[in-house]
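#lab-general

N.A. 3:47 PM
ok so I finally got the sequence cleaned up, no stray characters, all 795 residues accounted for. can someone with queue access submit it? mine expired

B.Y. 3:52 PM
send it over

N.A. 3:53 PM
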Amino acid sequence: MFHNARLLLLSLLLIGCSSVAIYHTDLDALYGKEVFPDRQVQTSTPAGEFYQHEVKPVLENRCIVCHGCYDAPCQLKLNSTAGIERGASKDLVYDGTRFLAAEPSRLGVDARNVKEWREKDFFAVLNERTQNSTTHLANSLLYKMLELKQQHPLPEQDLLPPSFELGLNRKQQCSTMEEFPEFQKNYPLWGMPYALPGLAEEEMHTLTQWIASGAAMSPAKALPDGIKNQIEQWEAFLNADDNKTQLTSRYIYEHLFLANLYFDEASLFVKNKKMQSPEFYFKLVRSSTPPGFPIVETDGRRPYNDPGVHKVYYRLKRLEESIAAKNHMPYVLNQQRLDWIKELFITPEYEVKSLPGYSLEEATNPMVTFKDLPLNARYKFMLMESEFIIKGFIKGPVCRGQIALNVIDDHFWVFFIDPDSTDEKLFNQFLTQQSENLRLPGEASSNSGIVANWVRYSTLHNKFLQAKNEALNARINRGQPFDLDLIWDGNQQNPNASLTVFRHFDSSTVIPGMVGQQPKTAWLIGYPLLERIHYLLVAEFDVYGNIGHQLMTRLYMDFLRMEGEYNFLALLPEAERKHLADYWYRGASDDLKEHLLIKHAGIKTDPAIEYSSNYPKTELVGFIRERLGKDITDNFDIYNNLLPPEQALPLAKINAVRGIPANLMPETATLTVLDNLNKPQLYTLIRNSGHTNISSFLMEDENRLPEEDYLTIVPGILGDYPNAHYRIQEREIPIFVKQLSELDSEQAYRSFADQFSVRRTNKNFWLHSDMLHAWYRQNDPLNAGILDYNRLENR
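B.Y. 4:20 PM
back already:
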C-alpha cells in the first residue's frame, strides 16, 4: 500500500515535467528491457541484398528528400545506416539564439556506437527491445509514423490546411516512442512523409517487411582492388614524414575535408558535366591510426583544431551514405591530380623548418599557418577548382540559414585575379607583413562576443585595406598597369575561370560560367580574399556555435563581399566606381559607404582599359567574356544549341519578366517540358530579388525592392531546394509564359499553379519526383543528388 502510494506521488510530481519516466516502465513491461541489436549483415546475404535493392531505394526517394544534412528534422538522418541507428533528437542544430555553443553531434565522430548516442539523448526510431517481429513493428517509431500517414492520408484538396506547419523555422514535434500516443492524438495528419503524399502500397509493404524482420542493414559492395591501390598511393603520399609534405597535406585536408572525393582518370578538372557518376566516394579525414589500420577520426570541432594525438594521419574514409544534392561537392583524385600537387608543393625548392601548431591564434590564420608553402601554389590549388571552393560556403556546414547567406546579392558573377599577374616574392612579403591584419574571428572560438570583436576585426580589416591600396598604387607607379591582364582566363579551357552565384533567400547555388542576365554586382577575387572566404565560412564556421560566433561570421563577411566588389569596380573609371558604389548601396549610411567603399578604395588612377561608351560596366563584362571565351562562360545559356529551339526561344522570354510578376514567383522552381513523345526536358526558374543594399542583416525586408525582382531561366536542375514543380506540354509553353508574365496578385498565382504546378498534395507527386531524379542522374550524373523538399511551398 505504502509502495503504491509512493509511486502515485512520484507520478504526480513528474506530470508536466517529463512523460518519459511515466511511459518507460510501460515500455519495459510491454516490450522488454532495452537492448542494442547488431543490425549489420553481409551484403551477399538475402537480408543484405533486400536492404540494398529494395529498402534503400524507398528511403532515398521518399525519406531522404527531407531527412539529410544537419537540417534534417529532429536530426534524423536516414541517408546512412549510421544515421538510421543513431535515431532522432529534440536538440536543434540550427539555433541562432543560443548564448553558448552546443555540443556537436557529428556522425562517426562525436559518438562511436548506438549506446553512446543514447547517452547523448538521441532516441531510437527502430525497435531496441525484445527482438521479434511483433515488437519490431509495435516499438518502431519509424513504422508508427509511416503507418499514421497510411491511416490518415492527406486531405483531398489542392492546398494543405493551416494546421500543417511548414517552413524551416516550424516548431518540430520530435516525439519519442513513449510520447507517440499523444502525438498521434494531437496530430493525426502529420504522419510520414510529412505534408506529402503517403507511400504507395508496395513501398509501405517493403518497409514494413524490413522493419518486422529486424531492419537488417548492409554496407555497399566491397571496393575493387584498383580503388584500394589508389587509396594506398594517396595515403602514402599524404602521410610522408618530411615537413614539406606534412604541411602540404594539412593544407590539402583543410581545403578538401568537405569534398566527396572520387577516383577517375578522365581529367584534372571537370569540363564535361555528363561524365559517368562515380560508384564510390570518400572523405579525407584525420585519424589517430596510420594507413593499414581501421580509421579512428579525431574529434576537433573544426578541421584546424588540435587533433589531440601525438601524430595525425590523413586517411581516405569511404562515404557510406546516399548522395544528397545539398551537400554534394564532388572532387576528382587521379594520377594527374597527384602529379600536379607534387609539382605545386613538393618539387619547388623551399624549406619548412618546423611545422605550425594548433593554437587558435595560429591555426585560424592561414597566412600564418601556411606561410612556408609557396604562395602561388596555394592560390593555384584553390583556383583550379574555384567552383568547389566557393560552393563550400553554400553547401558546407552552413547548409541552410539566412544569417550566413543574406550577406550576398541574389545574382552575381565572380572572376579571379591571375596568379601570374603579380610578383610572387613581393606579394608574399606583403601578406607576411599583413598577417596580423588578416586575422579572422574564428580565433574567438565557438562562444564569441560581438561588440568588442566587431571593433577589433573591423579595425584590422581597415588597416589591411589601406596597406592594400598603397601596394596597388606602388604597382602602378612601377609601370605595371591595372588592366584586363589581371583577370585569370583559365587558359581558355578551365570552366572555373568565371562563376555565377544565385542566392535563394536561405540557400544558394554556384555554377560555372556567366549565367543569366547581366547582374547588378560582380566580384574580382585574389588569393588573400579567396583564402579568407574559405576559412571564415567553411573551415572555421561552427554550425553548433553561439549567436556571437554566427553574427561575427556574417558581419565579417560583409567586409569580404565589399572587398571583392570593389576589386571589380577598380577595373572601371573612377567616376563609374563612385556611381555604381552609390547604386549598389542605396539606403546604406554615408559612414558605411565612406568607411568600406570610398575612403579605402584609394586607387589614384583609372585602369589601363579603353572605354568608348556611356556604359563602361557593360563594356567591361564584354571584355571579360571575350577574354575567357564562350566555351567557359556560356555553359547554361538558354539558347544552348543542344536545346530544341521550339522550347528555348519562347522560354527565353521569361528572362524579361521583372517586377510584380517576378516577385510573385517562388525563389526556385523546376519546369518540366514534355515533347510530343512525352520525353522530358528540365529547366529551372530562379527569382532574383532586388535590394537597396544587403548590409543590414536584421532588416532585409525593409531593404527589399520588389519592383527590381527579375526571373532567370536556365536549362537543367539548379538549386537543391526547389520551392515548386511545374509540368507542361511543349505546346503549352506560350500560354505558360504569357500567364507567368501577367501575374499581378496572389490569387492570380494560385490560378497559375492550379494549371501548371505539381503541388505537394498532388496524387502523382512521387511519380513526378522520381522522373526528376531519373532525369538528373542521366543528364548531370556527377552533380546529381537527392533534392530536398523541406522548402516546398503550399500556394
